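User: Study the chain.
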Amino acid sequence: MSEELLIERTPPVLTVTINRGKANAIDAALSRELGSVFADFRDDPAFRVAILTGAGDRFFSAGWDLKSAAEGEDYESDFGEGGFGGFAELENLFKPVICAVNGSAVGGGFEMVLAAHLVVAAEHAEFFLPEAVRGIVPDAGSLHLPRLLSRTQAMELLLTGRRLTAPQALAWGLVNQVVPGPEVVDAARSLAEQVVAAAPLAVAAVLEIVEKSAGMTVRDGYALLRSGAIKNYEDALVSDDAREGPTAFVENRLPRWQGR
């Protein structure tokens, strides 16, 4: 593992800190490394939630390292099995990723935030996509933003590079919480603890249902649920945890999840 990624393993939470230069910009090599980290997180049953943040207080990430691009790194370079940033395109990632946005999330850095399941932002954080005005295509942003915002809001961010402050991002529904800068990782950990309190298979089922029903009508979504095609949903329905939850409620105690 390079010094450009700081990894803190405190099961059931994995904390990953991008630590690359002044702006935490990501080149293809670092993206591949992130992909390996998130693949290991996906496959390790000891971990339930991952937190991704940046070193310092100026940048979460400035996105793709344009210096590397200027030196010949191609737009279609191998960014790893999880795509740019390590997790957005990672198959079967049915564990939550929380972005703790400690500073500006720019370009690909903002697109990583858009791909996260939950987002906590520092009060001073900013979010923007400058790609179009730099001759680059905000491809992931063009996929995510129209699904998260109104068409007009999405188009303004994509076409003009407008900067959103953290309070604006909260008002637009792009982040879950805004906290003072020094508290952003602790707030993300508190959110992670709330997720960990839920049953592992139930969490995985929710994420798989949301992913696989995206773009469907509700009727088609019900048909998908009944088809047996959503493995985590099927597993959760007949799990020991599905019995443990109601039993713990009746006995007025905390549930003891087994993940099976």
